[in-house]
């Protein structure tokens, strides 16, 4: 590391190479916390976790046994070694428990009074945290693999749902119905949707990952929908025809935006992770090796420095029109 610093100071080394080396060193140095444990409630594997964004105190877990558990992460004992206790759970004896494996759980982004869960039993359930009863249930014809609510939306209450069919369904929490289906004959996915994620920067931009090796960005305000299909070759002619216009050489089973929404991280069954410019769709060519069973991603704020403040008019002039706010203002006018 001292050699990197010396070369950087002398101008002989690209600062980005040093940044990648330091990030890699930190990632490889990660290990489990020996001071904190979590009470074991699930009888089988845990598929999904989510920590509420308001207090960052409560965590949800969903397991392949269909059980959902709510944990309190706070160390009330003030002891250096402690176990996070389960506050409550939706167990096998609960009347509204999922019949099969729970694939995704997510807190309502704005308070802890509600959370959602989706399962292989072809349902998306909306839960009242206080009563631990279902407030609404969405039923689908296909197995549900993933769902996500926008963390920044103020003009819609849409939940994006990825299913075994090659279509993304948008469920409206206000009306209790599936309001829209993202499936265009030529621009849509060809196989099941394995992961979905809303942009934390624009409340109308949605990313989807599929078993057809493709990742797409959608503008849910538009009838045509699909904005970009990510291409790992950045438009350059590929020697392998099967990799043309695909994000990975295999199923894409995980994706997430960086916290600022400027980049998108994807992972595939080709044991690779790729980082993309979420506005242009460009592959940054920062390639990471993943494990063979990786299908969940979570973004941790990195070493990147904050963007300098820019003149708002100049910034807007460079934006793709799809990334500008064009929601109807009829609600405010009324």
UniProtKB/TrEMBL annotation:
Coiled coil (UniProt feature): none
Predominant location category: nucleus
Repeat (WD) residue spans along the chain: 39-81, 95-137, 186-221, 245-286
Gene3D superfamilies in UniProt: YVTN repeat-like/Quinoprotein amine dehydrogenase (2.130.10.10)
GO cellular component labels: chromosome; Cul4A-RING E3 ubiquitin ligase complex; nuclear matrix; nucleotide-excision repair complex
PANTHER family reported in the protein's UniProt record: DNA EXCISION REPAIR PROTEIN ERCC-8
Gene from which this protein is expressed: Ercc8
Subcellular localization: Chromosome; Nucleus matrix
Function statement: Substrate-recognition component of the CSA complex, a DCX (DDB1-CUL4-X-box) E3 ubiquitin-protein ligase complex, involved in transcription-coupled nucleotide excision repair (TC-NER), a process during which RNA polymerase II-blocking lesions are rapidly removed from the transcribed strand of active genes. Following recruitment to lesion-stalled RNA polymerase II (Pol II), the CSA complex mediates ubiquitination of Pol II subunit POLR2A/RPB1 at 'Lys-1268', a critical TC-NER checkpoint, governing RNA Pol II stability and initiating DNA damage excision by TFIIH recruitment.
SMART domains documented for this protein: WD40
SUPFAM superfamilies: WD40 repeat-like
Descriptive protein name: DNA excision repair protein ERCC-8
Pathway(s) this gene product operates in, as recorded in its UniProt entry: Protein modification; protein ubiquitination
Region (Disordered): 308-334
Entry keywords, A to Z: Chromosome, DNA damage, DNA repair, Nucleus, Phosphoprotein, Repeat, Ubl conjugation pathway, WD repeat
GO aspect biological process, one term: response to UV
Assembly and binders: Part of the CSA complex (also named DCX(ERCC8) complex), a DCX E3 ubiquitin-protein ligase complex containing ERCC8, RBX1, DDB1 and CUL4A; the CSA complex interacts with RNA polymerase II; upon UV irradiation it interacts with the COP9 signalosome and preferentially with the hyperphosphorylated form of RNA polymerase II. Interacts with ERCC6/CSB (via CIM motif); promoting recruitment to lesion-stalled RNA polymerase II (Pol II). Interacts with KIAA1530/UVSSA. Interacts with a subunit of RNA polymerase II TFIIH.
Record bears the keyword Repeat: yes
Pfam family, one: WD40
